[in-house]
Write a structure and sequence with these properties.
Blueprint lengths: L1 H4 L4 H26 L2 H5 L2 H50 L5 H20 L14 H13 L6 H27 L6 H17 L8 H26 L11 H16 L3
Length: 266
């Protein structure tokens, strides 16, 4: 079931979610229309319509705020990834102002860290645990800065700035990991799913003269709500699914490392 939600294409995956929901709702609608006549259904139109308007407004507000919050959380994680990549680029570039041996050690440790994130760490966010193996690469970066010799005032300035960026880099890294574990709780998902079912169920209590019109309206409502819930799911699981965040920023920074090394004077 998880593979269905995490299909690589949002068009395919949403189609596989929305269409079955529409078919189920139409099947239930046909059963209701066979058991109850239009005349019987129309008797409760006033109460059903009034209640439906209240429930519909309440659910639309909840669903709207949920989508906004999920999108905001998604954007925060994206910004955190960009911050981490930018700080790594700054550290790599600033290391050029230390001695050749010190610069090589720093740049080597930064490269190894990015390679580790791209090949291993990025794909284990769902385990909700910090990868212990990553600590080795973080320690290597800190050790490379610890071995820097402060030979003059200029080096001291660059070193001080680099240590500040190194601390900010570690903060961004931890924020990326912690944010990847933040999801909507079971209570919230229960509210969203049960609420959608209740809203759709109200369509079964209306008695439209045209069965075709009734089916079209029910299908549109069901399709829209199921697609919105799938959107919330994809945003809530930012490192999986068709909208899953990819380490593009880190990959681009790693490519910049290669370009800077080629442009550096021999």
């Amino acid at each position: 079931m998880r593979a269905l939600f995490d299909s690589p294409s949002w068009v395919i995956s949403s189609f596989l979610i929305v269409v079955p929901c529409i078919l189920i709702s139409l099947w239930i609608l046909r059963i209701v229309r066979r058991r109850f006549s239009i005349k019987e259904l129309k008797k409760s139109h006033d109460v059903v319509g009034f209640t439906f308007s209240i429930v519909g407004v309440l659910y639309s507000v909840i669903l709207g705020f949920t989508v906004i919050n999920a999108q905001d959380q998604y954007n925060v994680m994206l910004q955190t990834i960009h911050t981490e990549a930018i700080l790594l680029a700054d550290l790599y570039q600033d290391s050029a102002y230390f001695s050749h041996e010190e610069s090589v050690a720093i740049r080597s440790s930064l490269r190894q860290y990015i390679e580790h994130v791209l090949k291993e760490e990025w794909w284990i966010h769902e385990k909700r645990a910090i990868n212990a193996h990553s600590r080795t690469f973080i320690t290597d970066i800190w050790d490379s800065y610890y071995n820097v010799q402060l030979s003059n005032d200029k080096v001291k300035i660059w070193y001080s700035e680099s240590i500040a960026k190194l601390n900010n880099f570690l903060n961004a890294r931890l924020a990326r990991q912690f944010n990847s574990w933040v999801h909507l709780g079971t209570m919230m998902w229960s509210l969203l799913i049960v609420g959608a079912i209740i809203v759709i169920a109200f369509m079964f209590f209306f008695g439209l003269e045209s069965m075709r019109s009734h089916m079209v309206l029910t299908a549109l409502l069901t399709g829209y709500l199921s697609f919105m819930l799938y959107l919330v799911y994809t945003l809530d699981n930012a490192f999986a699914g068709p909208l899953g965040l990819k380490p593009t920023a880190l990959e681009q920074v790693y490519n910049l490392f290669n370009e800077w090394d080629q442009d550096a004077p021999s």
